[in-house]
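Batch 3, record 17
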Amino acid sequence: MSALAQQIVLGILIGGLYGLAAAGLSLVFGVLKVLNVAHGELIMLGGYAAFWAVALLGMDPFGSLVLVVPLSLLTGVVLYGALFGFVVRANEETREKNSLLIGFGLALVLHALAVRLWTADERSIVTPYGGAVITVAGLSVPVVRLLSLVIAFAVIGGLQLLLTHWRWGKAIRATAEDWQAALLTGIDVRRAYLLAFAMGTGLAGTAGVLVSVGYSVSPSIGLEWTLKALIVVVLAGLGSMIGTFVGGILLGVAEALSAAAFGGPYREVVGLVIFVVVLCARPRGLFGR
Amino acid sequence: MTPLANRRELAWGAGILLSLAALALLPLATRRDDVLNFVFLILLSITLAESWNMLAGYVGQVNLGHAAFFGLGALVARTLWSLGTPIFLAMLAGAAAAAVFALPIGAAAFRLRGAYFAVGTLALGEILRTTVANVLPEISTLPTADIGTYRLSHRYYLALALASLSVVMAGLLGASRAGLGMRAIREDEDAAEASGVGALWLKLFALVLSTGLAGLAGGLFAFYHISYYPSHAFSPTWTFDALLMTFIGGVGTVHGPVLGAVVYVTLKEYLAVRWVDFHLVIFGGIFITIVLLLPGGLVQAGARVRRLFHRS
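Prediction for the assembled complex:
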């Protein structure tokens, strides 16, 4: 029984990261109607950035966020300017399909480049406090993963505040709701797109840092994280960042339970099955409004 | 499609079939296994690309889980063949298994449009791959007796037959009434339905042809390899390869996937000598450029060059 409880605790801890990973995807999809299947590769890049910041600059792994987040935002601006900015000019159906294809091409390129530059080896960040564990009621909670969960929650909460209170946050939400109406009220829709995409990439970078600190990073984690983020977005729907965070934790717990029920290797399968079932049951449903 | 373009397509189809017929003489001309293996890879890739193109190019449904059907065909064919079934029957059974498996999925998944269909099939492919990797973790190797009688030329001729079949199928489908309906769905599904095209049935028809052909290609893969991991045939790289080859050549045409397969495999093999997997950086880049600037791929590039000459 306590083994199961332990699994659930670990599921909650990684679930926070699923939520953070999904928040970026959800923001970009909700605002730009662009399904960026390279989102997981952006997470992978963030993870490597953190790894090198620690290995070469001797930074604290969590402290590397100060470096990685601005870099990710910049990457987002560049990617938008070079690729996705062209796609959003098309009508909605073409936009969805072309952005999917471009994201797919980008994922291939980033994955192959990462293998070339950093080899296919798995890497994780080793910290002096990495092994520290808090024991609560007989359940052990790794400190690093707990900190990651707290940071993920703080970032999501901050994002929610930005979207509801900041001028441009409101503009982004208005654009997501109806870009034509937003344009008519004088909102610079293009800039809202750019901001939302950069923020989505920044969220991916943040998630990447936390992944490489608490878990590990390798060039091939991209597809895995894209799928996790997609599953959470389908579960949680668009619109509420807190909802996305909760959806991530739900997925983490569901995986933990299924690993206990069917054995470890099937934990990936259960999330995907939920995903396909929800998609088929509500083809427009949970994604749309 | 104008009659002129139709005639050009016909000429291309005839040219491709003639080249394939000429390739039948290759095993007589050379005894070099590396040459035959290389051409085999191109032929397998043509079949795979044409099969993906039937759904993505004709009906406009991007299937990111194509590897699942290739893998199923390989799994069923290999299993039956190793139990003593003749390879032709085993491959047909593999194709049938892939197509039958595709039907309920299609019935559910075709309610999803555009990006939803793509990510749904992507998840499906990963479900199958993970499950197969868990259930069958052992490498599948031919019995020693069969290795002794292994003839590369048998595999080669079978690949040649399959590639020809896929080109003929794509050509017939493209010229048929059903193919016209499929293109109508691709351009505007609602408008097609409104003018009496049964969208769901045509999509299912294309899906069955596409996955059945992918299953046959998988069976060929199982027949070709002396040993491989069963989950390897389910690897998403099969989907990605098919997608890249089709788009680079020209999606929605008969000859595009053939051109794409020849270019892709040739460059991939050339680059792999020095940089493993580096071809994906190049082809990924080309692919993005094609989606953004030249949605018709090499075929469209050729048409543009021709127009330039006609103008001057």
